[in-house]
Specification:
Order of helices and strands: EHEHEHEHHEHEHEHEHEHEEHH
GO molecular function: 6-phosphofructokinase activity; AMP binding; ATP binding; fructose-6-phosphate binding; identical protein binding; metal ion binding; monosaccharide binding; mRNA binding
Distance between the termini: 37 Å
Strand content: 15-25%
Function: Catalyzes the phosphorylation of D-fructose 6-phosphate to fructose 1,6-bisphosphate by ATP, the first committing step of glycolysis.
Shape: elongated
Radius of gyration: 23 Å
Bound molecules: adenosine-5'-diphosphate
Number of helices: 12
Largest sheet: 7 strands, mixed
Subcellular location: Cytoplasm
Number of strands: 11
Helix content: 40-55%
Structural class: alpha/beta
Keywords: Allosteric enzyme, ATP-binding, Cytoplasm, Glycolysis, Kinase, Magnesium, Metal-binding, Nucleotide-binding, Transferase
Oligomer: single chain
Protein name: ATP-dependent 6-phosphofructokinase
């Protein structure tokens, strides 16, 4: 029998509840005890019965479809420091937990991977300072950690889809459908800002799914002159053909190749000045995170929750921590450390405007 804990961390995403539910119920079904760590790494660092609670089958009843995360999430500065992770190690051992499933984005999984790598030295330090007994040090010599990826941005390397991305996409499409009606009525243009700092997946997919006229994503920068001419050419052509509305989608991380962000205001100004369009801006903001999880996310989160428990039950100290992914519709397990490294490399390449490198890293991943 194992004592398996689950937590959610970083930005909330629809489907996290379904993931937590699946982890808890699978753990119980396999004969283990299940625990939830409340409020992300903050709960891990603070510890105690307020934050680390045993969960029973009925505790997660009704969680499958619910958006957000019922066990809370947080951004936790203390966990970034070794002292915070030492305390977290102590709290887990005190609660008798020997396996941890973390559902979060790349930041959370980076933290999880670091925690796993450090674990033996943390245990040693706790034992030598007398905070835990020698028996406890032996019993908790390793911690099985498994990551599941919850993120609306779909920005994690090594997985085709992250939990929450399709729900967020559905919400964006719904919002743009609403905007379409009013845009069409008044022959207006709307510039819609969607989330995605390093990753244009939401903007790109929403563009396809809503028949947007033009999109801006971080991965495809252009000079100011080029994007202005290109966008005005396309939007102007659509208008000449009789289209009564214009939708331009801007990912929040969109940039031009002179290192400047492309903002909705920049786009509005061009549509007004050059095409004379009556133009409005809609920033979707946190609406994109809300609401129930779409069927795809419920299913993905459930399948991944089952796989995560099975991975920690099968895991041993020699194998690197797994991250549960989906590749070509199959639930697979990938080394967490590789996924984290690759995600960071792509984000850094985009931040440094080295798009050729970002694209080749992504291509290499897909050609694996
Ligand atoms: P996300 O998981 O959605 O990418 P963040 O990047 O904010 O969100 O990470 C969530 C939390 O994970 C942080 O507040 C911090 O506690 C932890 N974390 C992130 N990066 C690290 C790191 N390099 N080392 C330790 N902990 C980290």
């Amino acid at each position: 029998q194992r004592n398996i804990a689950v937590m959610t961390s970083g930005g909330d995403a629809p489907g996290m509840n379904a993931n937590v539910r699946a982890v808890i119920r699978t753990a119980i079904f396999r004969g283990s005890r299940a625990f939830a760590i409340y409020e992300g790494y903050t709960g891990l660092v603070r510890g105690g019965p307020e934050y680390i609670r045993e969960m029973h089958w009925h505790d997660v009843r009704g969680w499958l479809a619910e958006g957000g995360t019922n066990i809370g999430t947080a951004r936790c500065k203390e966990f970034r420091e070794r002292a915070g992770r030492l305390q977290a190690c102590f709290n887990l051992i005190s609660a008798g937990i020997d396996a941890l499933v973390v559902c979060g984005g790349d930041g959370s999984l980076t933290g999880a991977d670091l925690f796993r790598a450090e674990w033996p030295s943390l245990v040693e330090e706790l034992a030598s300072s007398g905070k835990i007994s020698a028996d406890q040090a032996t019993q908790y010599a390793t911690l099985n950690i498994c990551g599941t990826v919850g993120s609306i941005d779909n920005d994690m390397a090594s997985t085709d889809a992250t939990i929450g991305a399709y729900s967020s996409l559905a919400r964006i499409c719904q919002a743009i459908d609403y905007i379409d009606a009013t845009a069409n009525s008044h022959q207006r243009a709307f510039v819609v800002e969607v989330m995605g700092r390093h990753c244009g997946w939401l903007a790109l997919m929403a563009g396809i799914a809503t028949n947007a006229d033009y999109i801006f994503i971080p991965e495809k920068p252009a000079s100011k002159k080029d994007w202005e001419d290109h966008m005005c050419g396309i939007v102007g052509k659509h208008r000449k053909r009789g289209k009564r509305k214009t939708i331009v989608i801007v990912a929040e991380g969109a940039i031009s190749n002179d290192l400047k962000p492309i903002t909705c205001k920049d786009v509005l100004k061009v549509l007004v000045d050059r095409l004379g369009l009556d133009t409005r801006i809609t920033t979707l903001g946190h609406v994109q995170r809300g609401g129930t999880a779409v069927a795809y996310d419920r299913i993905l989160a459930t399948r991944q929750g089952v796989a995560a428990v099975d991975a920690v039950l099968a895991g041993n100290a020699d194998t690197p921590s797994p991250m549960i992914a989906v590749a070509e519709n199959k639930i697979v397990s990938r080394p967490l450390v590789d996924a984290v490294r690759l995600t960071k490399q792509v984000a850094e390449a985009i931040e440094n405007r080295d798009f050729a490198k970002a694209i080749s890293l992504r291509d290499a991943e897909f050609n694996e």
